[in-house]
Amino acid sequence: MDFILTMHELSKRYRHFQALDKLTMHIPKGSIYGLIGRNGAGKTTLIRTIAGLQRPDEGFYCLNGVKHTDPRIAAVRRKTGAIVETPAIYLDMSASENLQAQNLLLGKPKNDQVERRLKRLGLDQTGTKKARNFSLGMRQRLGIASALASDPEFLILDEPFNGLDPQGTADLRQLIVSLNQQGMTILISSHLLDELSRLATHYGFIDHGTLIQELSAEELQKQCRGGWRLTVTNPQLCIQVAQRLHYACEQAENDVLIDGGGNISELLLKLAEAGCPVQALHQQDESLESYYLDLIGGDKHA
Ligand code: ATP
Fold it and tell me: Where are its TM segments located (predicted)?
């Protein structure tokens, strides 16, 4: 697999606090990589490091195969766009003035792609309105438009959904998916698990500065095994029949929980034959949230 970013045992310490602790991660090219962690887990520190805003104390990372200590990293970094904490926009300028300023900073013609980018980001009707009067969602989109000025292959978004209303969230989600479909690899940090689960193709779970698990959406789906909840007249008998068919199961009050999301028609048949009719049947999905809480030990501050 081709990776846009690989990181090996990277550590970062703030005085006596170990913010990143031998963190290893791999972001495949073309992915939407969801970096999930609770407040203080180290997400922003990690992102600031990747964006070149601070140096690691130990370990290394490679962007597009180039090690962070290699002088060629500057050229690779130019193909990376990042919005860390708040979008870097000029509040006393309009959307188009912001994009023009960004072009000039990059040594490009002032109006290069400005109209196209404003349209693409849904900001083409904002005219002379100053960015300070934009909604949070519009500012977020302007930040992304500005980050796109360098035609990045890799876009890094730190908590992009924070504070957005449902419309702003939906618009941003659509934008992220469309940028990804055009080939851009995107790293998104968030504690909004539900939001990430609608987007991410890969996940990294960070806790106490360490990446505790990294997996693809398909792998996560398999891990977030579903199951069935059966309401039966005789739970004990139901468990005996299910175990004979090698199902992992347990009693939950008057119901029986059957592990696994597959076809259970054979079990239903055997239950009927055994004189244990099923009164109700519900399919259950384990959410990303419960998976995450299990992973970090049940603390609910994601
Ligand atoms: P959040 O979701 O709250 O933004 P985070 O996962 O992004 O959290 P970081 O901002 O990376 O976490 O912070 C990780 C830890 O490092 C926190 O405990 C934070 O207090 C600490 N920290 C961050 N920056 C500094 C700094 N400049 N000096 C000292 N400690 C810091």
Answer: none
